[in-house]
Amino acid sequence: MKKGPVTLKATLRPKLGSRYAKRAREKGLLPSVVYGHKLDPVAIDIESREAVKHFIAGEKVFTLDFPGRDNSDEGQTVLLKALQFDYLGNNIVHADFARVDLKERVRTKVHVELKGDAKGLKSAGAILIHPTNEIIIECRVMDIPESVTIDVSNLDLNEAITADKVELPTADMKLITDPHAIIAQIVEQKEIVVAEAATVEGAAGVAPEVIGEKERAEKAAAAPGAKPAAGAAGKPAAGAAAKPAAGAAAKPAAKK
To answer: Which residue ranges form the domains of the chain, and what is each CATH number?
Structure first.
């Protein structure tokens, strides 16, 4: 049985701006905003550690509680729409919530979990990849699941499971993600290794052999009046006397 929305204690933040948001974070609070349902956006602060714990657990629907304050959002059901992280991508620094009704239909992201030991992993060099770990679905707010699970036990080498194979919890849920998006796939790792080895060999500077080049060079050397190959002009034929340097033949040896 699906449990009800988690309650988040909130306080109004009357002053806006990065300076006041920073002060809130220093106090252990998470600056947030609530919007939607044709009402004005409201800046709030929520207890950061408690909220992040629920975000990590996959919770998306919450009820706002403003202790000791009369607020139009008191008891309002909200849907987590976006999270903003710091520049390192490690810490959540802001959250966006949209006002919703439990019976209205919304679009939201849901995490996809894999279960089972894929039989294709028994092949040498096989690895399991999970390129799409979230799908977008449309459903009633009250039916939003924390995650959906797909069994990969029968997944074999070079096979893939696409988004349209994910079984949604209720019949009235609609898949919005591309049905052909790959959720899980088993590929052979050695294909990648071979490609890398070929790249390294090509980078080693080994020149390819030109077909017919050796034969053409031999014919050119044997032709009458053919000039010697480059670099051989100054070398005398085997057994021949070396010619004197230019200008030295007519000069007699110096008399002592």
So the answer is: 1-100 (2.40.240.10), 103-201 (2.170.120.20)
Q: Of residues 196 and 104, which shows the higher confidence score? A: 104
Q: Is 226 exposed, middle or buried (0-12, 13-18, 19+ CB in 10 A)?
A: exposed
Phi, psi of 200 (to 5 degrees): -65, -40
Q: HSE (CB half, 13 Å, CA atoms) of 12? A: 12
Confirm if 173 and 143 have CB atoms less than 8 A apart. Answer: yes
- The tokens for 104 are 């209205």
Burial class, 167, CB count within 10 angstroms (exposed 0-12 / middle 13-18 / buried 19+) = exposed
Spatial distance between the Cα atoms of 221 and 199, rounded to a whole number of angstroms: 37
The confidence score (pLDDT) of residue 73 equals 60
Distance CA 64, CA 41 (A): 14
Surface-to-core class of residue 112, CB atoms within 10 Å of its CB (0-12 exposed, 13-18 middle, 19+ buried): buried
C-alpha torsion sign, points 1, 146, 144, 44: positive
The residues with which 174 forms a beta bridge, in sequence order, are 138
What's the rounded Cα separation, in Å, for the pair 59 and 53?
A: 9
Which tens digits make up the pLDDT trace of 5-48?
889 999 988 778 888 888 888 999 999 999 998 888 989 999 99
Structure token pair of residue 253: 């040896």
